[in-house]
Specification:
The complex is a heterodimer of chains A (242) and B (254). Chain A is 34% helix and 31% strand. Chain A has 242 residues and is of the alpha/beta class. The chains are: A alpha/beta (242), B mainly alpha (254). At the A-B interface, helix 2 of A face helix 1 and helix 4 of B.
Amino acid sequence: MSSAIKIENLTKIYRKSHLGRVTAYVGVKNLSLEVKEGSIYGLIGLNGSGKTTTIKLILGLLFPNGGKISLFGNPMPDRKKLSLVGYLPEMPYFYKFLTGREILNFYAELSGSVPAARIDEVIKIVDMVPNAGKRVSEFSKGMMQRLAIAQSLLHNPPLLVFDEPVSGLDPLAIREMRTLILKLKEEGKTLFFSSHSISEVEKICDTVGILHKGEFIKVVEQKEWQEKNNLEEIFIEAIKDK
Amino acid sequence: MKQILSIVKYTLRQNIRNRVYYILVVFAIAIIFVTMLLSVLGGEQPVRILLDFGLASIEFFGLLLVIFAGVSLLLEEIESKTVYLMLIRPIPKWYYVIGRYLGLLVSVYLAMLFMYAMHFGMLMLKGWVFDPLYLIAIFSSMTKIAIIGALAVFFSLFSTSQSSSLIFTIFIWILGHFAQELKFLTAKMQFTPIKVVLKVLYLAIPNLQYFNWKDFIGSGLTISYWFGVSVVYAFAYCAVCLLLSIHLFNKKEF
């Protein structure tokens, strides 16, 4: 199985300047990981551990200070290769004066060759048929999340990168998200996502990476937590004394 | 190219659904009507008053629209993170800057053309004799809007807050109307450091006096080669501002 994402020695140092005084802090340090094609990879860690930073570096929203990233063997940054990725941000925001369908049309046009029928298809996938014609300003958080998922699936990318996909969702929506992720895996897609929810991660992931203070401290395979029957224990064990 | 047009199309759609856009346009129309009332008090020159005040008000409201929308155009999207979903598309980043800028201009121009049509109708009702310089004046005002819009976009990426971008843009807009005075001051200045600063400022700010054709309507002035020069100047000025904006945008992290 070849790799969908390969990261080698990735480092990101944030620098903030205030009144001429520059403060530097680590976003991620010497991070290396590999996500196999067709698998579900979960990235877990405490707040500020570097999960979102890693995702932003993969997508080219941040520039690394060192290290290499490749997607399906293509070295990044390469904006053309972003067509291989669908992204769901942690807190999705949209243009409030446009309707859900208009937003999908817009992103479809920017993504290149997306057939018009695909827009209807993704609207059905995320179950937002009755609300697609409403303006985003009228959307609930759950509807925003559905729209965000829809836009990530529009161009049918082989890799999906989700940042905290279940954050702030109600139990029913969490279950729907889990079903969707598993269905996407069945279709052969690779999923890479960050989460705080260890219980969710252990239900759907094949591999889990644990990040702590910007450093990658452990990779856990599904077999391991199924044998121990507790990913939480493994996580706490890993970050303890670090 | 198709993607730039998409960005223009959806920027226009967003803007014309924004309530602030309508409030400003309605306010501008009200001002044109006030101008008509003022022209009644204008003694021997009622048409001139309607012509001058009308054109000046439309340009002023166009400038307000372009400055306020221009400084928030990119900054707001960066702050609200809506920009993420645009930047993860397989298109060059400069498409976004150019698409947003052109979308902004089209939105402002639509509002201005609507106001010009009303103004023209009122002038005709007052028995004004059409002068081709009226069209040149409209075109020049729109060119001025393009320059200020490009500056607003540049400052919104250069500075970190909307208020500072707003202040910078308004400052340059005001200074742009005094470019000749600045040149005169530079020539008279004896103290070299200040002379250098004034010279740099003179070269950097747009000379907006090139676009004041509205002052010559009815003067019998023929359209000289200066009109062409001013168009080329505006195009070059906008291009430089946008290139700098693209450079800043490409270097920006999100």
